[in-house]
């Protein structure tokens, strides 16, 4: 029997909801997530006191397998325009195209 890992997306989304309040795409943050650099995000989760070491390890492993999981959690409460901006920028990173015109 396969045991599913807990899904912390809603809680993570709530913790970071104000990161997207202005709707602008932070290209540095997006590039780091896309590249699998999650240190800042994991530190913030750890400092929140809401996640134990095992939960943090689970979240980190989920993000390593698929960085888009973090992006989706971060965009959970974003408005449609913000969500489209970030997803368009993410798609550009997948295609290795310049992002100078996005945002």
Task: Describe this structure as you would to a colleague.
There is one protein chain. The chain has helices at 9-15, 27-34, 39-48, 53-65, 68-74, 80-95. The protein is mostly helical and 103 residues long. The protein is globular, with a radius of gyration of 14 Å. The termini are far apart.
Question: Quick recap of the structure?
Answer:
The chain has six helices and no strands. The chain has 103 residues and is mostly helical.
Question: Which helices and strands appear, and what pairs or packs with what?
Answer:
Blueprint: H1 9-15, H2 27-34, H3 39-48, H4 53-65, H5 68-74, H6 80-95
Helix pairs in contact: 1-5, 2-6
Q: Descriptors for this entry?
A:
6 helices, mainly alpha, 0% strand, 103 residues, 59% helix
């Amino acid at each position: 029997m396969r045991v599913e890992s807990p899904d912390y997306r809603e809680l993570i989304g709530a913790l970071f909801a104000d990161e997207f309040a202005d709707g602008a795409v932070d290209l540095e943050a997006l590039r780091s997530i896309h590249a699998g650099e999650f240190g800042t995000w994991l530190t913030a989760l750890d400092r929140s006191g809401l996640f134990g070491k095992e939960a943090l390890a689970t979240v980190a492993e989920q993000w390593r397998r698929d960085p888009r999981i973090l992006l989706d959690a971060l965009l959970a409460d974003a408005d449609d325009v913000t969500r489209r901006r970030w997803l368009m920028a993410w798609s550009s990173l997948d295609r290795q195209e310049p992002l100078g015109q996005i945002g």
